[in-house]
Amino acid sequence: MIHIRELNKKFGKHHVLQNINLQFELGQGVALIGPNGSGKTTLIKALLGMVIPDKGEMLFNGSSIKNQSLYRQNIGYMPQISRFPDNMKVGQLFNMIRDVREDIKADVYDWELYDSFEIEQMKTKRLNILSGGMKQKVSAALAFLFNPKVLVLDEPTAGLDPVSNEILKEKLRKSITNGKLVLITSHILNDLDEITTHVAYLMDGKTQFFKSLEQLKMETSEDRLNKIIAHILNGEEAVHA
Ligand SMILES: Nc1ncnc2c1ncn2[C@@H]1O[C@H](COP(=O)(O)OP(=O)(O)OP(=O)(O)O)[C@@H](O)[C@H]1O
């Protein structure tokens, strides 16, 4: 579905992505994790065409995404920080985005998060007065609205209250079961446990590993993602010590 080959990106002298090779398929929940500044958001932005790589290629369904934009219709994106037009109201934003995608038929729409997050009740609120968590809800509902095959979520649970967090996680779980590809970054590894089928771990712009959760569980004899990662990192420290 998504093939990333020998991807490189420098910002000035800072080599932020170094020879990244990854392959994601429908039905996977890929946890893209790694320390602050390891390149996760840059990789996501490259995939969305928001950052232009220096070298390497990315294929979506077998076709290069270079200078393409149509493939993005298949991706629902929830950014780390949502920036909305300040004076627009929530309802106007949804209307505007639906107008942009007039090709999408009404029966394709997925209103589940819109309903669960009770966005109808905030329809008349201006976007610039929404709390951080409310903005996250709007952003999540928009990412799912057109029922895309691929969901890319950059720290989606940061700022969500526990009930909303569970709603989003359940939605992601269902989406993966129904054959969508979910690519998600988070530092809250507990949030990823029930969603993850594969883990891509980035460090200093390099892929440290990309493995299925099952394989990682077997290798570490740990069950939870935070324990698995701690096990691997402690092992590495021991090796380097
Ligand atoms: N537009 C830019 N110009 C210059 N440097 C950038 C730019 N965008 C990102 N960087 C740098 O690239 C590195 C990777 O940033 P990125 O946001 O991809 O990390 P991340 O893994 O998502 O981090 P976090 O976990 O903190 O969100 C950082 O050192 C960052 O300062």
UniProtKB/TrEMBL annotation:
InterPro entries: AAA+_ATPase, ABC_transporter-like_ATP-bd, ABC_Transporter_VariousFunc, P-loop_NTPase. Gene3D superfamilies: P-loop containing nucleotide triphosphate hydrolases. GO terms for molecular function: ATP binding; ATP hydrolysis activity. CDD domains: ABC_DR_subfamily_A. Keywords: ATP-binding, Nucleotide-binding, Transport. It holds the Pfam family ABC_tran. Residues 2-229 form the ABC transporter domain. This is ATP-binding cassette domain-containing protein.
